[in-house]
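Morning, I've got a small favour to ask if you have a moment. You're getting the sequence in one-letter code plus the fold written as tokens. Thanks so much in advance, here it is:

===
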Amino acid sequence: MLTFTIRRLLFAIPTLLFIALVIFLLLELAPGDPMANVPLTVPPEIKEQMRQALGLGEPVHIRFWKWIVQFFWVEPLNVFDYLFDTNFADGRLRIISWQNRAPVFITIAERIPQTLWVVGTAYLVAIAIAIPVGIYSAYRQYSAFDQVGTFVTMIGFSVPPFFSGVLVIIIFAVQLRWFPSIYDTRLVVDSWESFGMQVRQMFLPVMVLALQITSQLSRFMRASMLDNLNQDYVRTARAKGLREKTVVLVHVLRNSMIPVVTVIALGVPAIFGGAIITEQVFKVNGIGQLLITAIQANDLPMVQTLTFIFAVLIVLFNLIADVLYGILDPRIRYD
């Protein structure tokens, strides 16, 4: 397993470099000029100096190499300096946002807590609900619980977030006035009262996201459980006199989790990527909204950095899913 993990990590390096090159070249073809929003009163020579400072006067391959070095070397050095109060990154040029003229990773670090509060909580809630629902629906196939669960999950999976988000705002924020409709990103959680306010403003966006994620995961869980409940090893376990609870929750569940782990692992990068539509509906100042504003402002360094971070997370959690396969199923060996 260790050899397989190291081999996959080494293989991930050229994969990520290729992805980085594709992202960089695609964004190079995007129309627009980052200097377009500069006031007309700025003299042309000052504009040219600003263009040079942003790296716009250099060849494409030079800018790509500088961006790779900044992403994999300069930015980690800055994190190390921040954590251990060193100065290894002093004087090194960081990835600068064209929109706000600030380091890209500082802006991302400011936005990521809001995304983790909302999207991360929704994902954990969805997993906690979806797996038990999927297990019981499969075990009690065609029962009233299974029929209702199938109907609810189909509705939750079919209704887009921009519709369900507006719907819950009308019901719970406008009509009932139980929860706020706009997420206050300035709220600081430093007491039980502020924590309660944070939970209240998180409730609606978490509900919308959890409904969609639960619908997907529970269907996968149910289908996987049904596939394993009819296998020969289940009949053998029952013939040996094992308790039904042990058969279902130990033998069947362990094998049924293998395909579900893939769905869960590949969904984790979406937590850091944010929920673009939901964040727009509830005004959550997170990563998803940051990506939208960066695209609208033609902020190429911000867009390519965020996109590449998502790619890195997807490759990483693919590896984690493969390793978990070997843990869940002893028959899988990576020789």
